[in-house]
Design brief:
Elements lengths: L1 E6 L4 E14 L2 E10 L7 H5 L8 E4 L4 E3 L6 E2 L15 E9 L7 E5 L6 E6 L1 E2 L23 E3 L2 E2 L11 E9 L2 E7 L2 E7 H4 L9 H17 L7 E6 L6 H23 L5 E5 L14 H8 L1 E7 L10 E3 L3 E4 L22 E9 L5 E15 L2 E11 L18 E5 L4 E4 L2 E4 L26 E9 L7 E6 L3 E9 L1
Parallel strand pairs: 2-10, 7-11, 16-17, 22-29
Antiparallel strand pairs: 1-2, 2-3, 3-7, 4-5, 4-8, 5-13, 6-12, 8-9, 13-20, 13-26, 14-15, 14-19, 15-18, 16-18, 21-22, 22-23, 23-27, 24-25, 24-28, 28-29
Helix pairs in contact: 3-4
Length: 489
């Protein structure tokens, strides 16, 4: 059982959710959950349909690395409730949804709760029996129905779904990334973009010993490919669009100078260098769109540009995005599915405060307190858990504060190697696993609600580091780097 804000950032409410069953029934999977409104008021029907939409209830098989979405033409249907009947305070609503059959007969799964209510790890999968459910609301229901304390079942549409079950079963794809954030080849020049969240602390321009060690591979590659007879090597710093222009300009210049200094020391006197900073004036991805956080992560970079040697083979001209290495964990080698972990009473492992500005909201700034809880392993994955408290004015209900996808861009970073463990993706089996949609990350969606002064829980599934790793820093969307977050087995 969990309590939290469900729905999405515009239409949300505080509720209690209890997952009561995940069962194999008639070649499908039946998931039953109970919703109870914890607000002291009823919720308008239009807003209430959002958090009660069955699409929010999904299943993760963390060992088999599969992601299951519910059928839309069968299962709970709340559309016939009147305005004053849905989401009444103190009423428990039972929702029944049907999903495709679970592959490999897992004994335990994780259920994704709606909005910021959180994940339900360790739910047992049982053999169920057919049940008789109401297919309509009672015709003789009186005014004031349902009353506080009542428990009702939302009408259930049953039968054979028209949707192809295989379209609702996705692979969960893991990957690692390096300090190299992208490459571009044009004519005889190559530009290598480096991730600033790996090299620098938040709002910092100094390289520590770990970052200098990570740059050794970059130095070796530059020596192999750059032609010293065709100077210069240009080092250019870039920021995202958050913050004031003059501050971003100075930060980009300082970071470019720091990287140039390390390159110069490593390559020796046979190379000439130039440095410049461009602040946020030269983005590679447009910000403010459906996945603003991802776009900004691509724009925060330091670029190394050089003329390459004639004997150096090159790819076709064009820009290559983040260098990503996909990997799949054999289910036999994956860890065990996690047990349910309530967050109530648990102390955060690290805390950070940061500000945001919203040009579409009168350029007002908003402060967030971000708390990271210990990571834990769930099968083949690492689960990042966090809570954010929003301070400031009400945010626009039509815009998500961290991008339209409802996701923060979180990743775990190994400072010793520069390896990044990013969020995992839910990808259709026949889709390109090399280029998943940035909107298909696995974790809390529609998060957080935007009420000022409120605290909201969230979670995201990340690629897992090697066994034996005991802690990692957590990079928070370019706003903060939370050090020393422990990994609980």
């Amino acid at each position: 059982m969990r309590e939290g804000y469900i729905g999405s950032w515009g239409d949300y409410l505080n509720a209690r959710i209890e997952v009561t069953e995940v069962a194999r029934v008639d070649g499908m999977t039946r998931l039953t959950a109970e919703y109870t409104n914890l607000e002291d008021r009823a919720i308008e029907t239009g807003a209430a349909l959002n958090p009660m939409n069955p699409k929010w209830l999904r299943i993760i098989d963390p060992v088999g690395q599969r992601h299951y979405a519910p059928f839309e033409d069968i299962g709970a249907d709340a559309s016939d409730f009147r305005r004053d009947e849905l989401w009444n305070p103190g009423v428990t609503y039972e929702l029944v949804v049907f999903l495709p059959e679970l592959e490999g007969d897992p004994e335990q799964v994780t259920v994704e709760g709606p909005g910021g209510v959180g994940e339900f790890a360790g739910v047992p999968v049982v053999d169920g029996e057919p049940e008789d459910y109401p297919d309509a609301l009672p015709e003789d229901r009186a005014d004031g129905w349902p009353a506080e304390g009542e428990r009702i079942t939302v009408p259930v549409a049953e039968g054979t779904p028209e949707e192809d079950p295989q379209e609702l079963v996705h692979d969960i794809v893991s990957s690692t990334e390096s300090v190299v954030n992208g490459r571009e080849t044009e004519g005889d020049r190559e530009t290598v973009a480096l991730r600033t969240d790996v090299l620098f602390g938040f709002d910092e321009a100094e390289l520590d010993e770990d970052a200098r060690a990570v740059l050794k591979d970059v130095i070796a590659e530059t020596e192999e490919r750059a032609d010293p007879e065709k100077p210069p090597i240009t080092v250019t710093g870039h920021t995202d669009g958050i913050g004031k222009d003059d501050y971003n300009q100075k930060l980009s210049e300082k970071r470019a100078d720091a990287v140039r200094e390390v390159l110069e020391d490593g390559l020796g006197s046979g190379y000439e260098f130039e440095t410049e900073g461009r602040g946020s004036s030269d983005p590679v991805e447009p910000e403010g769109g459906d996945d603003d956080s991802w776009a900004r992560s691509q724009n925060r970079r330091v670029e190394i540009s050089y003329a390459f040697k004639e004997e150096t083979s090159t790819e076709e001209e064009g820009r290559e995005r983040t260098e990503r290495e996909l990997f799949e964990v054999d289910p036999g080698d994956a860890g065990a599915p996690a047990a349910f972990r309530p967050v109530e009473g648990e102390e955060p492992a690290a805390t950070a405060d940061f500000e945001q500005s919203y040009s579409y909201n009168g350029d007002r700034r908003h402060e967030w307190t971000f708390e990271a809880y210990p990571f834990y392993r769930d099968g083949a994955f690492l689960v990042a858990r966090f809570a954010a408290t929003h301070e400031g004015d009400e945010l626009p209900v039509t815009r998500h504060p961290f991008g339209g996808s409802g996701h923060l861009d979180l990743s775990a970073v190994d400072p010793a190697t520069g390896t990044v463990y990013p969020q995992v993706y839910s990808v259709a089996k026949d889709a390109d696993h090399e280029a998943p949609s940035t909107l298909s990350r696995v974790g809390a969606s529609g998060w957080p609600a935007t009420a000022p002064g409120s605290t909201h829980y969230g979670y995201l599934y990340l690629a897992a580091p090697p066994e034996g790793t005991t802690e990692l820093p957590l990079s928070v969307d370019g706003y903060a780097m939370l050090e020393g977050v422990p990994i609980e087995e």
